[in-house]
Amino acid sequence: MNRALKQLRAGGGDAHDGFLVVGLLVAVMWVIEVVNALDSQRLDSDGIISRHLSGLPGILSAPFLHVSFAHLIGNTIPFLVLGFVIAFGGALQVIAVTVIVALISGLGTWLVAASGTDTIGASGVVFGYATFLMARGIFTRGVLQIAVGVLVAVVFGGALILSLVPHPGISWQGHLFGAIGGVIAARAVGSGKWKSRAPSANEGQTAT
Questions:
Q1: Any domain includes 200
Q2: Structurally, how many domains does the chain consist of?
Q3: Is residue 195 assigned to a domain?
Q4: pLDDT by residue (tens digit) across 100-147?
Q5: Residue 107's CATH number
Q6: Per-block average pLDDT, block size 10, for the chain (208 residues)?
Q7: How far apart are alpha carbons 55 and 75 in whole angstroms?
Q8: Is 166 exposed, middle or buried (0-12, 13-18, 19+ CB in 10 A)?
Q9: Counting runs of H as helices and runs of E as strands, what totals does the chain give?
Q10: How far apart, in whole angstroms, are the C-alpha atoms of residue 199 and residue 176?
């Protein structure tokens, strides 16, 4: 466990592997949307059904489901851009940030959204990616991370603020808790170097 955490904070592996993980996640979204479109969008009902126990599994499926190809395209572009920046820290970092953000965004939505609301889409993860990159420099004090965070804030900050304003059919809850999840992820796994390093010989050999 300790070694795994140190690896995450050190970067988590090769950037190439991180790019592959981000690409794979997007590929899964597109395959699922093609299947969903061919099946009259029936998979849309498998999202996060707030405050219903049967809706909890939707926390895992919701980021991969979209109401239309337009919805998917709108999430794919920022997901790839932000995801590839995170991927410079390696595959483990991408996976850790994605899991933390998706769980916090999903659980927050399940708890706060109006009872019975069905929420789907990857925008919560997208905003979590954005706040991860914004907040990481606060914890690392690294010049590069701070510069990246400022750039991301300039490009995505306005959209993040506007996304918290309630709009019909838009889950501000998913955006809010996704953003919170990104900050938590920055504190948990982002407090390390931008690039990965090899583990030292005296590090423990424990693993999960």
A1: no
A2: 1
A3: no
A4: 999 999 999 999 999 999 999 999 999 999 999 999 999 998 899 999
A5: 1.20.1540.10
A6: 47 82 98 96 95 95 96 96 96 97 97 94 97 94 93 90 80 94 92 44 39
A7: 22
A8: exposed
A9: 8, 2
A10: 36
Does a structural domain hold residue 207?
Answer: no
What radius of gyration, in Å, describes the C-alpha atoms of the chain? Answer: 17
Tokens of 71: 């919805």
Q: Which two tokens stand for residue 91?
A: 């595959």
Task: Check if the beta carbon of residue 43 is closer than 8 Å to that of residue 35.
Answer: yes
Distance CA 128, CA 133 (A): 9
d(CA 153, CA 131): 8
Show the domain range for 111.
Answer: 2-189
- Which residues have a Cβ under 8 Å from the Cβ of 85 and sit 6 or more positions away? 133, 148, 152
pTM over 0.90: no
Residue type, 176: L
Q: 51's torsion region: left (phi>0), alpha (psi -120 to 50) or beta?
A: left
Q: Give the pLDDT of residue 5.
A: 44
Residues 6+ apart with CB under 8 A from 34: none
CA dist., res. 30 & res. 45, Å (int): 17
Asked, for residue 198, whether it belongs to a domain, the answer is no
